[in-house]
Design goal:
Strand content: under 5%
Number of strands: 2
Largest sheet: 2 strands, antiparallel
Helix content: 55-70%
CATH class: Mainly Alpha
Radius of gyration: 17 Å
Number of domains: 1
CATH architecture: Up-down Bundle
Distance between the termini: 30 Å
Strand order of the largest sheet: 1-2
CATH topology: Four Helix Bundle (Hemerythrin (Met), subunit A)
Length: about 230
């Protein structure tokens, strides 16, 4: 699979992101499942359920062809994503209810592994420029896969915030940085490594005065994702 929508080898990036996540989720204990994460208010189990939902989004999208033209891409998808506090609270409540009856972290890990593997198989059967529909938007397969990479990598960072576990790989983190840079419209500080860029640009880690000085007026636009 080649490049599409400016995303470097999106299927390879998603294969890495999903593989890293599957290994993490399958290794978590019940005690770790109730720990807090870098996503404020969300426990590990909540985020595991959310990641199952997002893999399901990818699977449905790869089986939902659309007519053109595309009305979003890997960057605009996130730039246009807005959720009110009430909507965010409802999202957490619904996710937590689902997670509470899912059967525990072991079951969610298995469901995520199966669903994400199916996404990879389905995506490999399509051309990168294939137009698909997700959440009412039309985009290419390559851009869809980027949205799944960003979701997976950012939440992988969230999951391991308080756990001694490996974070996402360099490829997915570099894609997060590429997308965040596109959303911001200007480069993120070179002093930030990709993991730091993901955390600070999404509001998961506070900006220092030095960060604000480096960013200048662009600091007012952060956080870029929530």
């Amino acid at each position: 699979m080649g490049q599409a929508g400016g995303v470097p080898d999106p299927l390879s990036l998603l294969r890495t992101a999903y593989g890293d996540l599957a290994a993490l989720l399958q290794d978590l204990t019940d005690a770790e499942a109730v720990r807090p994460t870098g996503c404020a208010g969300w426990a590990v189990l909540d985020l595991a359920q959310h990641l199952v939902f997002d893999a399901r989004r990818g699977l449905v999208a790869t089986a939902t062809p659309a007519t053109g033209p595309a009305d979003t891409d890997a960057v605009r998808y996130w730039a246009d994503w807005h959720q009110s506090r009430a909507e965010a609270d409802d999202d957490l409540w619904r996710t937590r209810v689902s997670a509470s009856v899912a059967g525990g972290i072991e079951v969610l890990a298995e469901v995520h592994a199966e669903t994400s593997a199916a996404v990879l198989v389905a995506a490999a059967r399509l051309e990168p420029g294939t137009l698909l529909r997700t959440q009412g938007r039309v985009l290419t397969l390559g851009d869809l896969l980027s949205t799944l990479v960003v979701e997976s990598a950012v939440h992988h960072l969230d999951l391991v915030r308080d756990l001694e576990r490996p974070g996402p790989g360099p490829g997915p983190l570099a894609e997060v940085r590429r997308v965040l840079t596109g959303v911001l419209g200007s480069p993120l500080p070179e002093e930030w490594d990709d993991a730091t860029a993901a955390r600070r640009a999404t509001g998961r880690e506070p900006l220092s005065e030095a960060d604000r000085a480096r960013l200048g007026a662009a600091a007012q636009a952060l956080p870029l994702l929530r």
